[in-house]
UniProtKB/TrEMBL annotation:
Record flagged with keyword Hydrolase: yes
A Gene Ontology molecular function term of the record: phosphatidylcholine lysophospholipase activity
Organism encoding this protein: Lapidilactobacillus concavus DSM 17758
Lineage: Bacteria, Bacillati, Bacillota, Bacilli, Lactobacillales
Matches recorded under Pfam families: Lipase_GDSL_2 (PF13472)
Protein name: Lipase acylhydrolase
């Protein structure tokens, strides 16, 4: 009888120990499940994406020179700007309103003066969710236009330092009107390459100018550089001047009236490059905060 009681006591003790351990495990597990650590990074990301709400309307303000104005656009609707509008509305289920403040022939200084003096430009920039800009080509042309066939690269380098200062002032003025909207800036391109492919100094000047633009943009937040030189200078289908008889130099992306500005195909190529960048940063302009 005594032995049986001892055995029963041992069994009861073992059961009690098991219950205590199980209870402690349950409490610990329950607490762990309630902590944020239980949520994985992936789960958080999915939840955050689900919570994002697309803006019903987005405002694009375009500012710059003739490429923004749309010289060469046969539809006279504003070059690359309506093409961006069409693509964003199709792909992102939002309404895109646009304002185009492009003026043919404007240098960086002239664009800056318009921002400083024109209330409608200031208001357009302030309202923007997204800003695009073309700038720099006229600054360079003012430097080399008198002697394109014999470009002085030392003069180009000196002028690029001045352009750097003016571009900084321009971006500062835009930021004073709108501190947060992403600014997407296109490069310049060489429209003369198809006719004068051996003028390497011209290409070097263009490269220097684009490098200057990139270096300035890096000093500002939420500014993005887009290369259009690669698609406009030597587009697929162009026939380059080689000196052979009966061969006509042509660039199918250039406006035939001046062989300088883009035609409709050219503007589509430019828009495609800008759209790639714009879509890659949509978290900065598409969703409600």
């Amino acid at each position: 009888m005594v032995n049986q009681l001892k055995k029963m006591t041992k069994v009861l003790l073992m059961v009690l120990v098991v219950l205590v351990v199980a209870g402690g495990t349950y409490v610990g597990l329950n607490q762990w499940l309630k902590t944020p650590n239980f949520k994985t990074t992936q789960a958080k990301s999915i939840q955050q994406q689900a919570q994002k709400k697309i803006k019903k309307s987005v405002h694009l303000t375009a500012i710059g020179d003739s490429l923004t104005f749309g010289v060469g656009d046969a539809t006279s609707s504003g070059g690359y700007v309506p093409l961006i509008k069409k693509e964003i509305e199709l792909s992102d289920q939002t309404s895109l309103t646009t304002q185009n403040f492009g003026v043919s022939g404007d240098t960086s200084v002239q664009i800056l003066k318009r921002i400083q003096k024109q209330k409608k430009v200031q208001a357009g920039l302030a309202a923007a969710d997204l800003i695009t800009m073309t700038v720099g080509a006229n600054d360079l042309m003012h430097t080399i236009r008198n002697n394109i066939s014999d470009i002085d690269l030392a003069k180009v380098n000196t002028a690029s330092a001045t352009y750097r200062k003016h571009l900084k002032q321009l971006l500062t003025a835009i930021r004073s009107e709108n501190p947060k909207a992403p600014i997407v800036v296109a490069s310049i391109y060489d429209p003369f390459y198809v006719f004068f492919p051996k003028l390497t100094a011209l290409q070097q000047g263009m490269t220097k100018w684009n490098e200057t633009t990139q270096s300035v943009l890096k000093t500002f937040d939420h500014t993005y550089y887009v290369d259009i030189d690669g698609v406009m200078t030597q587009p697929k289908g162009s026939v380059l001047a080689t000196g052979k008889k009966n061969q006509t130099a042509s660039n199918p992306f250039l406006y035939t009236t001046d062989h300088f500005h883009p035609n409709n195909r050219g503007y589509q190529a430019i828009a495609n490059q800008l759209i790639k960048q714009i879509q890659s940063i949509k978290s900065t302009w598409l969703y409600e905060k």
